[in-house]
Amino acid sequence: MQILDGGMSNALEDRGHDLSDALWSARLLRDAPGEIAAVHRAYYEAGATFATTASYQASVSGFGEAGVPRDEAERLIASSVAIARQVRDELAGDGVQRFVAASVGPYGAVLADGSEYRGRYGVSKAFLRDFHLPRLELLVAAGPDLLAVETIPDLEEAEALIELIDEIGFPAWVSYSVAGSLTRAEQPLADAFALAGRSTNVVAVGVNCCAPEDVQAAVELAAAVTGKPVVAYPNSGEGWDAGGRRWTGGSSDSAPLASGWSAAGAEYIGGCCRVGTEDIRTLARAITPA
């Protein structure tokens, strides 16, 4: 069983950072990399065995729109892995094996308009390949343990990313943003899992950035369709209001549900947006044998 970390953005906001611009947490790769390191350290110390890099919303084009030259943008994307690796290495020697997953968010995340929860961006598969490839190459070259291809809302983008993963030949998990038994683009989740399951380089398949109550059925389906280990890391239960750029609704605790996810085949369990260090500490205690 591997314990994933929680949300990077909420942890940085808890430390007093304003993430309201389009770069979101990726801005701090440039402005306050030590704060990103502090969040990785806090999650590791809370019991996470995986740190997920602050590259979810990072792209050469996105940094370019913020006035960052291309060579500096490339350095910042690679630095997301270097920061996490340094923290991991600083904690080595205590008998815990820790890992770094390089986050690869969907194209919609860079648009910063909530379209990662809708998909179907109106661009071609070739466009998506051209968008994702430079970031994938930069992240892989920086030396993570695997890629976290996450919050993917539809099959077309998943297909483009999985093709690139296989061409590069690097291990990855692929997790979808879902609503019930459908992707966010309203496609059958079974088809999405089957697509990822056919890849030899996809080592785990699952869901993230969804409601905790959607996880159990999705884990069971992913395990049945793919036969691969399953990854599951939902949000707190709150919903994202893209227009108001805020979280709404109440939160729920995933820890009581996590043993069911594990029994159904989830081998990588953690949290996504609005899930913090104490939530991960509680989750780790709930599913890690004493």
Automatic annotation (TrEMBL):
Gene3D superfamilies found in the cross-reference section: Homocysteine-binding-like domain
Domain annotation Hcy-binding: ranges: 1-287
Cofactor, how bound (note): Binds 1 zinc ion per subunit.
Keyword Ligase: no
The protein's Enzyme Commission number: 2.1.1.10
Any one Gene Ontology molecular-function term assigned to this protein's record: S-adenosylmethionine-homocysteine S-methyltransferase activity
Binding site for Zn(2+): C209, C272, C273
One biological process term in Gene Ontology: S-methylmethionine cycle
The keyword Signal is annotated on this UniProt entry: no
InterPro entries referenced in this protein's UniProt entry, alphabetically: BHMT-like (IPR017226), HCY_dom (IPR003726), HCY_dom_sf (IPR036589), Hcy_S-methyltransferase (IPR051486)
Names of required cofactors: Zn(2+)
UniProt entry keywords in alphabetical sequence: Metal-binding, Methyltransferase, Transferase, Zinc
NCBIfam families xref list: PRK09485.1
PANTHER family noted in UniProt: HOMOCYSTEINE S-METHYLTRANSFERASE-LIKE ISOFORM 1, ZGC:172121
Annotated protein name in UniProt: Homocysteine S-methyltransferase
